[in-house]
Prior knowledge:
Elements: H1 5-10, E1 15-18, H2 22-31, E2 39-42, E3 75-76, E4 89-90, H3 112-116, H4 122-139, H5 142-149, E5 161-167, E6 183-189, E7 197-199, H6 205-210, E8 220-222, H7 231-248, H8 253-256, H9 272-282, H10 335-355
Bound molecules: flavin-adenine dinucleotide (FAD).
Keywords: Cell wall, Cytoplasm, FAD, Flavoprotein, Oxidoreductase, Secreted
Family: Belongs to the GMC oxidoreductase family.
GO molecular function: flavin adenine dinucleotide binding; oxidoreductase activity, acting on CH-OH group of donors
Amino acid sequence: MTHRLHDFAALGLDYLIIGGGTAGLAVAARLSEDPQVQVGVVEAGPSALNHEDGGVITIPGRYGETLGSAYDWQFATVAQPGLGGRSLPWPRGRVLGGTSALNFMAWNRGHRADYDAWIVSPKEYADLYTHAKSIAQKTGRPHDELLARQFSPDSKGRGQIEYLFDLGNWSPYFTSEPGKKYATMLQMLQYPFSRGSIHIPPRNSESAETSPITVDDKPVIDPQYFLGPGEIDRKILAMAQRLTDRICQTPPLTGLVQGRVFPPSDNIRSDDETYGDFVSNYTITDWHPIGTCAMGGRDGAQTGVVDERLRVYGVRGLRVVDASIMPLQVGAHIQATVYAIAEKGAAMIQEDMLQV
Ligand SMILES: Cc1cc2nc3c(=O)[nH]c(=O)nc-3n(C[C@H](O)[C@H](O)[C@H](O)COP(=O)(O)OP(=O)(O)OC[C@H]3O[C@@H](n4cnc5c(N)ncnc54)[C@H](O)[C@@H]3O)c2cc1C
């Protein structure tokens, strides 16, 4: 690993990857398999490979502890009117490995129809499956084979809400009492209609000269939760909350749950307005932002930033390969899809290299 800028700049690189995150490192690993190819990676965060932090990243059971730490960019949204004026933390990994070093390790895939909706051809979806399968074959672990099969075109199942009953208190709005055991019934919206924006902070022409934008200027993140077309998200989540209550009052959960502590049972009337208020006041993010460099498909730069080969419209030699190219959400946690994008992206880069 080269740390000194001028040594790094002197390297005759074939590819320069900005961001040694989830996708960036997968692409770098794949391209550098060819010993003739020189790949450089620029990462803003530390390597965290020496375990000086006591294994906060490498010990799976410690997931969550890195949030708000030096490994986190510590972004936050602007105040959200749709959430009662709250601003939500949007953690992102600032460390080699990127957000995969911070995440909670849930692993699954979207439905075939999710990927078809990106206006890619059935062949390209089949390619994603092939890449997932070859990852599994390389590791040789039967479990990975099982995971890869999720990408198979004939597997079924799609839903608007993911329900997850998990041990521990997931709410930042409820303080656990020491010595007591808690579980949280989570409901996660899979296909949100809310549409927002992320921008670098504005500068007027004077301050742009005296203090240019740096990597430490936090982006202005405005997801516009539950506003405009996103109003339907709030309605769906309020309906889902009603079902959540029913699930918790049905065996086997009734046998496990002694009582609800948050929201307190006597505070919640079972009417739509109350459920809607609960959703506005307590919804947090599921940490799967996408789409800031969305693939524009046939409509080109009008609707997107990159084309179907992940090339930035109008810029030669520049690609984006990460979660930001996803034009639509998939009904799944997105890390597996990010890896599939990276594998597919690396394969396309290699194909194009052969044609030069
Ligand atoms: C708290 C949390 C929990 C999650 N849990 C799950 C889960 O359980 N399952 C799941 O599937 N997904 C989960 N996700 C989502 C998933 O981890 C991310 O979507 C995915 O890792 C994003 O990968 P990426 O390659 O697009 O970006 P990243 O992995 O974030 O990579 C971007 C990299 O670029 C670097 N970088 C940024 N700016 C610069 C710069 N100017 N110069 C140099 N480097 C720069 C960053 O430091 C970072 O290393 C979670 C996310 C979070 C935040």
